[in-house]
Amino acid sequence: MVNLTRIYTRTGDGGQTRLSDMSLTDKTDPRVAAYGDVDEANSAIGVVLATGGLPTEVAAALSRIQNEMFDLGADLSNPLAADPPYQPLRVTSDYVDRLEQWCDQFGAELPSLRSFILPGGTPAAAYLHIARTVTRRAERSAWTAVHQYGTEVGTQDRPGGVNLVAVKYLNRLSDLLFILTRVVNGTSSEVLWVPGGERGNDPEPEPGQFEPHPPAPDAGDNQDQEQA
């Protein structure tokens, strides 16, 4: 159980912080960057949920993912150890399996794409695109940590590495978020990328084409590209 009694501590004012194993490291450590990016992606998902009007199954999946991303941050902030004094919280293969199942479930009815999708659409879908791209950044940060620390347990001479399943989770999550943008937007209104040589002279926008979308309905009203 987490017990937060005071938010500010002044202990990080010198540019260092403690990882979950209480080891001291710089705030520029790639581990810190990775779990910081995870926190940012989780915040973007929170904005998606706050827009309301999501399909019930999408909202339920995103709510579970928000909890799992705290597990993920805890994992990335805890170097692998051979004999830890307590059982660490780790992302395991069942987390990844669940994301893949959601990818299959939500993607089953979507038509194939013939080009990349321009980010945008409804507010919820636009924020899902932001969450997707921040998740990709988190994956890159995690790989930077892997390249620096490896994937083995620590020894007296070197710190422990990074759990590769946690990095895999980020990859699958970005795939799922891309699929969910299509589910939330509806594929009939997708705007596809047209490469420069094929665009010609861009037409003038139709009147009202770029007017803001109307406010999303309350959640209760709706019950019911990414490349590796």
Automatic annotation (TrEMBL):
Keyword Zinc: no
Cobalamin adenosyltransferase-like domain location: 7-184
Keywords: ATP-binding, Cobalamin biosynthesis, Cytoplasm, Nucleotide-binding, Porphyrin biosynthesis, Transferase
Pfam families associated with the record: Cob_adeno_trans
Similarity comment text for this entry: Belongs to the Cob(I)alamin adenosyltransferase family.
Locations listed in the record: Cytoplasm
Pathway(s) it belongs to: Cofactor biosynthesis; adenosylcobalamin biosynthesis; adenosylcobalamin from cob(II)yrinate a,c-diamide: step 2/7
Reactions catalysed according to its record: 2 cob(II)yrinate a,c diamide + reduced [electron-transfer flavoprotein] + 2 ATP = 2 adenosylcob(III)yrinate a,c-diamide + 2 triphosphate + oxidized [electron-transfer flavoprotein] + 3 H(+); 2 cob(II)alamin + reduced [electron-transfer flavoprotein] + 2 ATP = 2 adenosylcob(III)alamin + 2 triphosphate + oxidized [electron-transfer flavoprotein] + 3 H(+)
Species whose genome carries this gene: uncultured Propionibacteriaceae bacterium
UniProt GO BP: cobalamin biosynthetic process; porphyrin-containing compound biosynthetic process
Gene Ontology CC entries for this record: cytoplasm
Segments for region (Disordered): 194-228
Listed GO MF terms: ATP binding; corrinoid adenosyltransferase activity
Main subcellular location: cytoplasm
EC number: 2.5.1.17
Protein name (database record): Corrinoid adenosyltransferase
